[in-house]
Amino acid sequence: MSVDRHVEDLLRELAPQVLGALVRRYGRFDSCEDAVQEALLQAALAWPAGGLPENPRGWLVTVASRRLMDQLRSEQARQRREYQMAVATPEAELLGRAADADAATDRDDSLALLFMCCHPALSEPSQTALTLRAVGGLTTAQIAAAFLVPEATMAQRISRAKQSIRASGVPFGRPDGAEGAERLRAVLHVLYLIFNEGYTTSAGPDLTAPGLSDEAIRLTRWLRRLLPDDTEVAGLLALMLLTDARRAARTRPDGSLVPLAEQDRGAWDRRRIAEGVALITEALPHGPVGPYQVQAAIAAVHDEAPDLDDTDWPQILALYDLLETVAPNPMVTLNRAVAVAMVHGPAAALELLATLETDSRMARHHRLLATRAHLLELAGDRAAAATGYREASLRATSLPERRYLSDRAGRLAGDGGGR
Amino acid sequence: MKYLMLTYGNQAKWDSLPAESWPEAIAKQEAFNAKYRETGELLGAYGLADAVNARLVRRSEGVPVVTDGPYLETKEYLATFYLLDCESEERAQQIAADMPWADVEPVELWPILHESAAEA
Q: What is the least distance, in Å, from the CA of A388 to any CA of chain B?
C-alpha cells in the first residue's frame, strides 16, 4: 500500500513534466495527452511490483513517446507530415537530462501546460476536468467519481476540451504581458473552483479518488514553487489552507453543517492555520494586493480568534471594505453585511442588504435570504427571522444547507425560548 | 449542477401523431441526445413504458405486495426523463428550450439537490 501510494504521488508529480516535454516537442496536445495517460497507467502497473526505474521521468518520456509514435504511425496515411517530424526527433533531445538537468525547462513546460488547460476557449467545467487530468495526473475515472458523473460523460468532456484546444490553435507556451496576467487569473480561478467543489461536497473518505480540496492544495503548492514571487498565488494557497483547517469542525458526523459560531475551535487544524498565516503575512506587504490575499487575511483573522465574540470584527470589516474595492460582487457585500452587524449592529447591516434586494438575481438567492434572517434574529425579530430562514431553506442548493436553514427556522418558530 | 428534465404525455396524444412521422420525431430526439451527450452535459435519457405497465409495490409484514396502479388523476403522466449536468441554471434552461418539442409542450426542469455518492 505505501509503495503504491509512493508510486502514485511520484507519477502525479511527473505527469505535467512529461506531458509538457512531449507537447513542447511534438505539439498535438490531444495525442500527447493520450500517450502520457497510457504511459502513466503502464507505470502504475509495473513500478509497484518491479521497482522504480533508475530515471522515472526518462522512462515515462520514452514510453509515452513510443505510444505517440504508434499512434502517429497508425494515422500515417492521413498525417504523414507529423509522423516524419516525430520520427526525426532524436530521443536524446527529450531524454538528455544530465546531472545538471535544466530544471527551468521542466518548470516552463509544466506552467505552459497549466496555462493551456485554462484557455478561455474552454468552459469552466472543461478547464477543471482537463487541469485535473493533464496537470494533476488523475484518471478520467477518478475525476468522474469526484464530480459524481458517469465516466463516459467525463471522458466526453475531456476529449471535447482537447479538441477545442487543438481547433483553437493555441500555441504551447505561456502568454505574457496582459494576456499572461489574465490567464494566471483564470488558472487561479480553476484551482479555487476545484478546491470549493471538494470543500462543499465533502463525500466520505474515498480511497480511489483523492479529495478535490487536497488536490487543489497540492496543485497550488506546486504552482507556488514555480511562481514564488506571485503574491496572489501565495494568497490563494493561504486561503485554501486557512479554510481547509476548519474542515473537521465544519460538519457533524451525520453530515449536518456547523456554523462558524458553534464550531469546536479545538478541532481546527493548527498546522494548516500556522502555515496559512505565515504565507499571507509574508505576501501582504509585497503587494499588489488581490482578492485571494484579502480573503486569506479575513480567514486568518477568524482562524486566530479564540471564539466568535473575541474576533477582531473591526479588522474583518476593514478587510471586507478593501475586498469590495478590489473585487466587488454581491457575495462580498453579503459577507460584509455580517461584519457590519458585528461592529455597528444589525440595523445598519439590514440597510446594507436592502441595496442588494434591488438586484433581481440576488433578491431570491438563498444566501441573501439566510443572511437577512440571521440579521433579523440578531435584531430580536424572531418571527420574521423564522420566516426568512424557511424561505431560504426552500431555495437552498445543497441538502446540508437546506437542513441547517429549516432547522434554524424550526428553532425560532418553535418554543420561542432559548436553544 | 445536476438537473432533471421531464416531459409528460398520454396515449391519446401519441396516437394522434401519424405513424409515418415517428421516424422523423425519433431522429430529432436522438440528434438532441447525441448533441448534449457529446458536450458532456447529458448524463442519460430515459423513456418510460405506458402507465398501464406501472405497478405499485409495498411491503406488508415483510412480504412484497404488488398491485396495479398508480391511478393518476392527471390526464398526462411522466413520459421521459433526462439527467443533465451543466455549468449553470441558465445553461440548463437553454438546453431544455432546445428540446425538439419545447415549442409545443413545456419541459419541466428540476434542480437536483442531493445525490448519494458511491463509497469506494
A: 20
* Tens-place pLDDT, residues B21-76: 889 989 999 999 999 998 889 999 999 988 888 899 999 999 999 998 777 777 88
CB B1 within 8 A of CB B68: no
Is B38 in Cβ contact with A153 (below 8 Å)? no
A contact test, residue of B3, B89, B115 with most A CBs within 10 A? B115
Q: Are A172 and A116 contacting, i.e. CB atoms less than 8 angstroms apart?
A: yes
Q: Under the phi-then-psi rule, with left for phi > 0, alpha for psi from -120 to 50, and beta for the rest, what region is B40?
A: left
Cis preceding-peptide flag for A210 (omega within 30 of 0): no
| A44-72: pLDDT as tens digits | 888 988 889 999 999 999 999 999 988 88
Nearest-angstrom CA–CA distance, A272 and B11: 62
Q: Mutual orientation of helices A29-50 and A56-74 as an angle, nearest 10°?
A: 130
pTM of full prediction above 0.80: yes
**Which value does ipTM take for this structure?**
0.72
Strand segments (E) across A99-242: none
Å between A387 CA and nearest CA of chain B: 21
Q: How far apart are the first and last CA of chain A?
A: 47
